[in-house]
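Table S2 (text version). Query chain:
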Amino acid sequence: MHWICRISLFALILLWTCPALAQLKVNEFSAHKGTQDLDGEEHDWIELINYSSQVINLGDYTITDNPNNPTKWALPSETVNPMELIPIFASSLDRSYRARHWETIVMDSDIWKYFPGTEDPGIGWTSPAFNDSSWDEGPGGFGFGDDDDGTVVTDVVSIFMRNQFTVEDINDINLMSFHADFDDGFIAYLNGVEIARENLEPFAPDYNDPASGSHESQLYQGGIPNTYAWVKDDLEDLLLQGSNTLAIQLHNSSAFSADMTGRFFLSVGMNTDNITYQETPEWFNLGPSAYHSNFKLSPGEGVYLFDSDQNLVDQIEVSELLSTGISHGRSPDGTNNWCYFDSPSFGSYNEASVCYAEIEPIPGVSLESGWYQGMQTVGAVSSSPTQLIRYTTNGDLPTESSPLYTQPLTVDNTSVLSFRAFSTANNLPSPVVDRTYFIGEENYQVSTLSIITDSLNLWDWNTGIYVYGPNADTQNYPYFGSNFWEPWSKWSRLEYFDEGQNKIAEEQFDLEIHGGWSRAEAQKSFRIDLKSKYTGRLEHPLISHKPWVTDYNNFNLRAGGQHVWTSKIQDAFFNRLIKDTHTDRMGYEPCVMYMNGDFWGLYGIREKIDETYLESNHNVDPDALDLLNGFGVLAGNDETYYSDFEAILGIPASSGLFYDQANAKIDLKAYKDYFIAETYFQNVDWLGLAWGVNNVKLWRPHETGARWRYVLYDTDGGFGAFFWNPWQNYIDYAQDPGVPNLHSDLFTHMLQNEQFKCEFINRYADLCNTIFTQENFDDVLWGMQDDIDAAMPDNIATWGMSTYQAWIDALSALSDYNDVRLNSARSHLNTSFALDGQVDVTLNVVPENAGRIHISTISPDQYPWEGVYFDGCPVTITAIANPGYSFDHWEMNDLLAGLENDQSVTLNISQDDLFEAVFTPNNSSLDLRLSEINYHSHDDLNSGKWIELHNSSSQSLDIGTWTMGNGTGQLEFEIPASTSIPAGGRLVVVNDEELFTAIHSDVENYIGEFSFPLSNSGDQILLKDSWGNTVLSANYNDNAEWPQGADGMGRTLELTNPSNYDAPDSWKDGCMGGSPGAGY
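Corresponding structure-token output:
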């Protein structure tokens, strides 16, 4: 019998093998999610069944999606009774534990210690060690109004409460949940660690601070409290064996509120069947508690179950036709009769689900989507003998009541047609097939999205996302209570076409209304959420200025925000303007959108600032980072944020340690550029300047040495929006906003450090001398105008914007504002920092094209060059020779006395002056080689990734301000000014200094760190000079033609032939560990 099983494993011919051994079976599965776990995320899932009369041990089996890797995921050891179901999320999270049942360890109605917020409750009140003997005690919940309070507390804005409880055996607990029924805001702490926060600013509020928003309690009106959950891996830093303390501060929205509620519950998922604590409340239902495998399911693959001897005991293929809401399983449970279910039953028996034999394949359609002239004929073709094809023309999903296709259809205007096959047998309907026909439409020369959705998703009075709906305040803008203010998602489809009108993708997704007050405008913005439970990511570089982002799981279609009727592109333009700074920003690509065949106008494809954005733009793990906004945590946690910022605030700004300590926690290059951009743009809707701490996001990865970075987004409030003017000083406002906050406190503290202050001033001057100059400003602005000019007349005709000229005038107003803003920004720098005035600086090189000059942080590319700096902050100026020249001297001026022979000078420029660098020919030619690459270290010799450059010429080569990258433009590394490689010398560029020096402690000639990704499987390395000219380019690979010792085996790629970097035989295996900084 075992011999037969092994034959089956390798042949994979029979669907069922060794039925006598198949006690454990796959009973049902879904490859398109549909069920949420504790984390609130939907996952693929598999349900197993013990289809035998004997108790079995689950740990005797393994499960996999790859038959060649039978032990991919070992099932946990657990006793499984006959006909018992075992639920498993196929999530790749790899959790070999679950809760057998839930119990509540802290109930809202328990006796709590509480302290009415008439004063501060005392230092350390959240700690288990705090002495609360003087506090009152009573049954929860706490507050007044709504008749839902165990203890009534009135006449206060806040209530502090503590509940001490005992964990009998921490090893019995696998999961934990916290439920909060509150009105209006709270912070919860477990053993002194914050675990949840709602409607309170991201800092420690005072006892008399009101909540930052309103929230109505839910239980008294039949709702469910807010839910927060943790898995076993997270509990070791939260729960303690023995005594624990849950501490909560509750805040009302005002002293005049009519009600206040605080009802809180702490529950645990137990890994035993014993009852230790309290039963959960009646409303408690967190869904099936399931294991998590280390793989996901994909259509076209399979699910394979093996026993401990690696005999295949069960297998089933994952059909390509499976879709969201459809599962594949056995009926009756455990038998050999497989069915498709349109009512999946994860964790429950299938007896109530209707059994369908197959899913109808999609029908054929004779005419592809695209642009056509004149009337077109469209035919549909059955793909099975049991099909009846039905269709719609309005975006609705065809149903059994939709028109029956009987003859070819004609279309003479832009239309969408949707086809779906229904069955005359016992089969489920096919997936839908959508086609968009653009008849006689203009070629706008931008990308096009055709969105197809059920008309009721948009226009139904009660559920449509585009209408006011029954609860709208239609008398007051922005019509709060309207349906378009609800966080509703609607399943939809799309077809995406590039600017050449080529169809690139068709996807299914969730459609939402996006934005703030701009939701009230007629042309609304949308969020496109491409969930894996549908068709998954759209795999195409949608944004031309970010070619390294090649797939998207979401993006926004922004109509223009608060400028939808004026410039339409202000925020996109500001983000484009700062693209060459160190600031994280949202990409933009213009497009036109059609909704169910109707022209919906011009939009901007914009990135959404979330974990996937950070993964795409910074090559970080999206599941291992902290992402915060001005009001709380979006991903990860805020513990490091508070500890890092408070640590910096605790160091005197005058300390010699201050700058390095701050730079170790915050990326100060990016920090400066971010605050310069926001203050230059005068974004009033930011940092609490006028109201809440809006439009602030910052992040850091969970990595050693990681630093915080801010992200620029939503600058609609800039450049005079809301009636502000260019002479208002936002440098001062950012230090003393209307709503003080930790971000503004830190900014103020940073500017008290002399080094940071002068770097900030000089960098501000650099950007005023480059990207904010009127010439560059207008080049970018009118270039973006030209991109969308062809579509704007039709956008105006569709949405009623006054005239084309009004649009041009709005763009001109931006340009005119900058003409004033450039001067006011310089004036504000001078007054805010008590400087001694502006100075005009002229740079020149002699002879022409012999070199360049790096001033502060920029390297102009044309000479003579003029810029403005400030008397009071020293500036570093460096002469950099081009290949074939050497620096000789500076022409003397009033400021250079005694420094004229120094290639790099740092001095305070107290007057207008000319700095002219003189170079002399040295008759050398450029002979720079990319001599060694370490792209994939061995685990035991991990020196990170590094690249060696070899100057084979007879003269020193200055490569300061050159850039190195992977050819995509992502995270290019700028080589520091004054970096040179001596004649015959080498320089190593590293991505991780700590790893590199741990292996190569004797190497001193290295620089770093670069951040651009280099793949272990192959990539490009591109070195460009200061003018953007390619100096070196190499494409390496790890396929069989290339030296294999460099691919994780401990060796490196060592150059043998500099004439062709892309040829495998131009490289050899280097020595073990490589020879960085020296010859082979």
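Notes on Table S2: The longest strand covers residues 24-36. Residues 709 and 792 are 36 Å apart (CA to CA).
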